[in-house]
## 1
Amino acid sequence: MNQTIETILNHRSVRQFKNEALSDEQIRTIVQSAQAASTSSYIQAYTIIGVKDPVKKKKLAEIAGNQSYVEENGHFFVFCADLYRHENIGRWENSDVIHSLESTEKFMVALIDASLAAQNASIAAESMGMGICYIGGIRNDLEAVSEVLELPDRVIPLFGLAVGYPAGDSSVKPRLPMGAVYHEDVYNADEAGMRAELDRYDETISSYYHERTGGKRSDRWTGQMAKMLSGKKRMYMKEFVQGRGFDKR
Amino acid sequence: MNQTIETILNHRSVRQFKNEALSDEQIRTIVQSAQAASTSSYIQAYTIIGVKDPVKKKKLAEIAGNQSYVEENGHFFVFCADLYRHENIGRWENSDVIHSLESTEKFMVALIDASLAAQNASIAAESMGMGICYIGGIRNDLEAVSEVLELPDRVIPLFGLAVGYPAGDSSVKPRLPMGAVYHEDVYNADEAGMRAELDRYDETISSYYHERTGGKRSDRWTGQMAKMLSGKKRMYMKEFVQGRGFDKR
């Protein structure tokens, strides 16, 4: 196993960081790594906002549900889907691009582009001994996030990425058994097989929580998912996304 | 610069592969790397289909616009957004999850999850000396792809990933200047500044094409984007996505 794969497999979310800001050089390396990711038809449909202003960080932490690690970290990035550049280009080039920009296809492209870039940034940071945590919590209120970061239309914040040197330990969380996630040639939709696989996974997860909480927790994964998904969370999203000019047709 | 960052910055799309199939061990390492990526609230909302059947590969290559490297590679993965598992879990646990599953929020979560996983897979493969190419072309006809891979509802193929040992050379394509993609604290929406930055980038890209084609091509990036986006491509996407149970509310 090479060092890169070791870094990848060793990933855990870090939620406590040393009070040590990343240098400009480190930030540059992370952003350049992000930019090196593949991009659909060279479109590069994303923007990264690095947040240094403590007032803005505090506000973002509140939006994300008072997660202290949004405020306290080495650096905080917000990854955005961005077609604002392309709208401008359409105007400069007298080209009718709006139909495309507002399509579900381009919404997907921008999300995929931004996510590939973010994962490159994460791996780059982790390879330098830092820890990372994705912050989906900013999606609690994207209107407010857009205000904090002064985002124009055709730009949507997708998630934050807290980066820094880990303070304290965290552990690798077991993933679904490979057989549940990886199929060959066709999707194996057999319910009994899936259930058997997820039953085994539930046992793994129960033991994981049991061990780490001295017996206080023993959640099953399927139980967590059923509970989480029964909450009607962030149902404003469709309206917000379309209001910003994405996913309209 | 460490080896991982070197691998990341050295990325180029590879479109010609040696006739050498990946071993099961290599496939396992790549899938495990994919699975190690962060996942929103532990949801793991994706599935990866490895396609070995030459008839299926041929069909996918046709769908993608007769791209030979979809057929000829070391291995071909299709990354899918997947909430089918979670629909089943809802039923097993007597939990009303449908509202959540059909939300734009969860559509975004599934796309982001799948993309983070795919980028880990890519970096893992590249760290082992392989090359990769994302195949957005499968989105030309997702109905047909779903048929080939026998995908149930609540599963959407997003893109392919061709992996294998490179045959022949390809070069790193210059990305947008960092200043165009990375902003600090607020989005810099100043049009004149953006235009100046993109003018400089256009010169870089023109030289890039000029050098590589012996003067035959000298496209500007903005010109490419204007042209590409004026085409109303894959406008069936919204209907398809909603038909499969995503992004409905």
Note: Chain B touches chain A through 117 residues (CB under 8 Å).
## 2
Amino acid sequence: MAAKSSKDIRNESRFMVLRTVFAQHTVTRAQISAETALSPATVTTLVGELVEEGVLREAGQVSSQGGRPTTLFQANPGRGALLAVDVAETYVRVDLFDVSLARLDQERMELAPGAQTIETVAEHIRGCVETLLHRHPELEGDVLGAGISLPGQVDPVRGVDVFAPNWDWHEVPLCAALEEAVPVPVRVDNPLMALATGELWFGAGRRFRQFVSVNLGTGVGAGIIVDGQLLRGRGNSAGEWGHTTLIWNGRTCSCGRSGCVEAYVGVEGIRATLAEIAPEHELLEVPHHRDFIERLMRAEVAGDAAAQRALLRTGDYLAAGIGNLVNLLNPEHVSVLGWITRYAGAELHDRVRERIAQECLPGPSSTLSIEFTEADGEGVSLGMAVLALEAFLERVGLPSPSSALTPAPPASGGGSAPGWAVPHGGLAARRR
Amino acid sequence: MAAKSSKDIRNESRFMVLRTVFAQHTVTRAQISAETALSPATVTTLVGELVEEGVLREAGQVSSQGGRPTTLFQANPGRGALLAVDVAETYVRVDLFDVSLARLDQERMELAPGAQTIETVAEHIRGCVETLLHRHPELEGDVLGAGISLPGQVDPVRGVDVFAPNWDWHEVPLCAALEEAVPVPVRVDNPLMALATGELWFGAGRRFRQFVSVNLGTGVGAGIIVDGQLLRGRGNSAGEWGHTTLIWNGRTCSCGRSGCVEAYVGVEGIRATLAEIAPEHELLEVPHHRDFIERLMRAEVAGDAAAQRALLRTGDYLAAGIGNLVNLLNPEHVSVLGWITRYAGAELHDRVRERIAQECLPGPSSTLSIEFTEADGEGVSLGMAVLALEAFLERVGLPSPSSALTPAPPASGGGSAPGWAVPHGGLAARRR
């Protein structure tokens, strides 16, 4: 039940300084102070430490208001490189970033459909990394770390994948396998946390301290930002909005529950909606998720009534799901991201805009903004590069966490149902 | 986008010190330090300030481990009294507490059924307060503040009730009306925040930093605790779990949406479930909520099959609703509170226990504990006494907030639908 320490505060302040520099590219200490509300003395100290470590560098001078020249600072791309790995269900992609978070290069390999072992995944990552480093001999010895996003419920502290239903992974030890494949320290996480971290550093996080980033993809989920920090929950699985109820006892979801948001708003959910409207629709046979969504949008534009109805209905489901987040969390803002927005963002945006006021209580709705961002599909790797940078900074003694990682305890027993514990002797013992 | 300051930290630390003293009644500084992980020097300073203000007092000495005597501290009941007001839909109740949060006395008046004006409510409160103060002439001049809980979406910063659907209140100015009725500074809030504050000070808050307190009553809702602080959201309406979806397009809810959790788990929801099972059931005619629940439980025990099915189904709905909270927030713990637990707690507990593992993802479920607490119906007034104490401490310069209150901005325009704002020129402008 420990209180926050002044060290925690200092780390949070360092995060705000770094985020300001990265988002604005070139800034003076006075601008950082104005943006973060940190005192000039604090900013001077924090910038000084980061310059000393080589993460920031001086970038010339400008005249200040009083006419005296003042120093500009920027991230230092020469400090080294970061690997960002996005392991999806059908591909492995590795991006190379410099420390200023500029993307230098990219390599990608397809994964065969079906279940994967961690060894296969690690082998694919190794292949991409070797190709990239071969193309960039100048970086030898200068790769500072790797951030690897894997599907499922990833525990970054223990370095395991707790649960990845589509691959039947349970408690798979990731870091052990991956650190053989990648010659640098590895930080693992899941795509939801990666996307939300990117949004916190480069998107809505610059304007809001309480917001939700909704990810629309094959699966769907949310990143919850409270008081400027990403909420991870007890075991890094906060944000599983895709596995909250939209229709109790409704469609079977991949997680084993019924009626989850993902079963209506995820790609297979959209397909199921189309099948309910037009059981014989030709697009139902398109196996690949992006192809399916892209062709559904083309059909919608071409006047296909079933495609139009399926999209409207998806917008209705999405509005209800977002309304749930708004009513429960009363955020300042909702960002809608994820690859589906590249194809269907405008249509879903319009429908959600029509419906959202009816789905929210008047109080939370009156102060809310919602923004759809057409994703470029690179949000996960950007977020993993940020997390790899955070891990590197922590190793050199300059933590700047966008979220607090707490070690999860071992699974607790104490009851007949998994996960049920009644600490003080059960119900009757706590009559007050 | 301001960072936390060392003053914020000091206030949070003061909260932890106070909570430890109130929960343990009589403690040494060393015990406070052990419980809070604050340094002995910090504890000495914070306790010293609170003693100087008269909120804490010395309470004798004990021998420490080294044999030297060490001072015990406790809350100082002589410092003054607090009024805690619970305005429900059918009654107004005022409790008198001393500063050690011991309940001294209580007065209650019924409210006539139907819509109320703020003037009627204020008149009832005035009546109860005058009776209480007449019975306690020794407290003249010593009442430090009042905490008043009102139904609906209360904004404590502006002192208004944003939305109370059952009374058709919109933007009702509470503090202005209530400060005439009560001769001391007034702090307003809603019952959900009051109950969660009580749980944070005296219940699960002592053991967990990430938890949810679920309130089962006429209406239902949740208090969300993140990092040891109550989440209030942008406009103090976080936690409206009762107005998240259980069945999309399902039963009409009092809030105007369809299929909300409250429409299945709140009292009228339970009644609707019974009506679906047995449309002619005699209990459907019992108007008063507590009578209805009490008689439903008696019928269940007596073997009434419809009552039994209605309770089982309510347990299923409750398990799904709690599963949603667990999957979205991945808390360490869920406390189930509220007056319904006094009557139906054991039965709902058993059914939730049977069902919860199926409603939660494996990760969050493996580290979760759930506890039902049979409520004594006094949780709201206890929580409001705590909030009145917090407000008093803030006025004397010793803030100890269990949550951060941020002023809500005025309702924003900027779009055709209420509450829709697209800050940067809309969708296309943010392609990244």
Note: The longest strand of chain A covers residues 56-63.
## 3
Amino acid sequence: MEEECVSVDHSGKEMECLSIIPGWYSDVSDLFPVPGEIMSIKIEKILFKGRSKYQDIMIFQSLTFGKVIVLDGIIQHTERDVCSYVEMIVHLPLASIPNPKKVLIVGGGMGFTLREVLRYPSVEKVDLVEIDDMVVNVSRKYFPDIAKGYEDPRATLYVEDGNAFVKNTAPGTYDAIIVDSSDPIGPSRFFFEKPFFEAVSKALRPGGVYSTQGESAWVFLDIIQKLVEDCNIFFKGSVNYGWTNVPSFLSGAIGFVICSTEGPLVDFKNPVNKVDVDIISTKSESPLKYYNSEVHTAAFALPTFAQKVLCPKK
Amino acid sequence: MEEECVSVDHSGKEMECLSIIPGWYSDVSDLFPVPGEIMSIKIEKILFKGRSKYQDIMIFQSLTFGKVIVLDGIIQHTERDVCSYVEMIVHLPLASIPNPKKVLIVGGGMGFTLREVLRYPSVEKVDLVEIDDMVVNVSRKYFPDIAKGYEDPRATLYVEDGNAFVKNTAPGTYDAIIVDSSDPIGPSRFFFEKPFFEAVSKALRPGGVYSTQGESAWVFLDIIQKLVEDCNIFFKGSVNYGWTNVPSFLSGAIGFVICSTEGPLVDFKNPVNKVDVDIISTKSESPLKYYNSEVHTAAFALPTFAQKVLCPKK
């Protein structure tokens, strides 16, 4: 192993080993500090460390989570549990509309969400807008099985600013827009603000669907409340909060804000596509690991403490 | 703060500070080692450290989780998220049968599960069998609001071995038995073995219900598979696996094996008691924080990777 202990903070410098566990990666970042808890994962080997124009990127082989992808000192994905995050952020919206055809992914340059979107035989066109081409290149090298989605003739990669891309999209272009971004600070902060929500709502067709990373209710209930309030301004179909369990994320949970525009009714809690039955069976080389229709519906069952804040009418 | 860093291993000796984070508690135990991930919680003050006849007990005030209870180097409860574990392990079984009257709790000496059982107006008698009276005494001192359940005239504490207690119980005594134990090693190992399951099934009335801590499917799917198989031998009503999200537990999740004996049908997925509406409203001084009828049903929606192993017929 090249390095005994590593924790990269926002400025790109390595933190002193003094405060962390030698040979382990610790999820500590002054970009998005959550004092009080630290998740540490045993490093077997650091595979890649680099700084792009936008962020620090690290990939390491861990003892029990497979390969781990870290951006700006925050774990983004681990091979062991990425299935929960990417399958849910994609299939919660896409399984809820009949025959999704045109899909936009904002962020997600690793290609994990792209692979999930491409499972749908109805999909004709997927645009993926990732600002940081180092993310795409790193994925092609270290996750070739995932990144091969980029070779699918239905997929087009735009190395651009997703915020500007959406604002320049012709109204009503997409059936679904999925924002697979990092947290509401740093390079992704624009994706959590009203002008972006407005642009997304316009870029969707009537009855189109939108999902975005929506943080954990255990930790950031105030942020989620604001996201839901702001989305309610622009998404006149419905605004929902769903969640799933991701062991390597802070609090072991992550949520999604899931919305639809005015138009044909979308009943997110009762998916029209039985993705687990219809699609796994035809794609048996990489079956779904987490998602099925039951966990889809269950994702919208919120703990009482979150329901009181996010669904006060109940 | 008296101590700068603490991690208690099985033998009761403190580990060297070298390998952990000064001022933080790290969930590392050679009693139940899970190499590859460590959860650490910032300590504000250690409130209690002791060794009973059975185990090491520590309580500390944390920065963001409230008071934290540690047995043999493994986090048992934190004030912030204990609601998820105790409300689910109690209400998944009790909300599934009409008018529970006689309930046995095995373990759970802190009194958290006792408080949940006492919410039911129909409950006439709760026996709680805890082998370690130091756990009860510590709870009375540091969690007086919780431990006041012991003063309820319906509650009786037995400081005894739960395994022997259940085996000596007259057949058909209880409507529900809840095993609120630590992991399947150490002092609690008997609660995860066939002779105990058999004794529980006999101590329950026909159509009686049983719930026990059942580990996380992300980490211990093999253990859970064995538990479910073994329970199927003795519980002829049904055997189910449900789960919930507990941030401070390994993988952010914990499961429960939930069973019923032969007799009146128990439909665990559709609770007969609407605990959230009927009972919170009459106990407003300590409302439910996590449980409601929607999360009850959702608890039985398993990720595909777990469903394939635990419900292979699906």
Note: The two ends of chain A are 53 Å apart (CA to CA).
